[in-house]
Amino acid sequence: MDIKGKIIQKLEPVGGVSKAGNQWKKQEYVLETFDSYPKKVKFDFFGERADQYVFEVGDIITLSYDIESREFNGRWYTDIRGFKAVKEDPNMASAATPYPAEAGPAPAPAPDASMAPPADQPPFDQAGAGDDLPF
């Protein structure tokens, strides 16, 4: 799954040693989406990806992620684990205005002579004057 947004927070890196004696590292971020109602999403990069994908607050990225849940002591925990991320170029027009302005109605097209009714057909408002249909 993919999601696009702006990094609004970079959390402190977390690391340690597993029961098997292996070193591990995790870097967490908070991303805000560009939806009509923006959502905040906390995600992480685990292991070597924590060093591979380094972002700063303000970076606009497209994140590919997996959702993973696990049980511990009768409680369930869910992680959003990033496996790939692409940083957007800040000079691109789409990235410069991530929140598009509300657009008004589209302008009406100019009248076209090919759209006019034939000369032998009565105008629209008189065409159905004799029937009793409500529309």
Please describe what this structure looks like.
- By secondary structure, this protein is mainly beta.
- It has a domain at 2-92: Nucleic acid-binding proteins (OB fold (Dihydrolipoamide Acetyltransferase, E2P), Beta Barrel), CATH 2.40.50.
- Helix content is 9%, strand content 42%.
- It is built from three helices and six strands; from the N terminus they run ββββαββαα.
- Strands 1, 2, 3, 4, 5 and 6 form a six-stranded antiparallel sheet that branches.
- A hairpin with a 5-residue loop joins strand 2 and strand 3.
- Residues 95-101 have low confidence and may be disordered.
Distance between the termini: 47 Å
In this structure, how is the largest beta sheet organized?
A: 6 strands, antiparallel
The radius of gyration is 28 Å
Question: Please, what is the oligomeric state?
Answer: single chain
Reported CATH architecture of one domain: Beta Barrel
Strand content: 35-45%
* Uncertain ranges: 95-101
Q: Structural class from helices and strands? A: mainly beta
- The CATH homologous superfamily of one domain corresponds to Nucleic acid-binding proteins
CATH fold category name of one domain: OB fold (Dihydrolipoamide Acetyltransferase, E2P)
**CATH C-level class of one domain:** Mainly Beta
| Arithmetic mean of pLDDT | 82
Helix run count? 3
**Order of SSEs, N→C?**
EEEEHEEHH
Q: What is the number of beta strands?
A: 6
Q: Indicate the percent of residues in helices.
A: under 10%
What coarse outline follows from CA principal-axis ratios? elongated
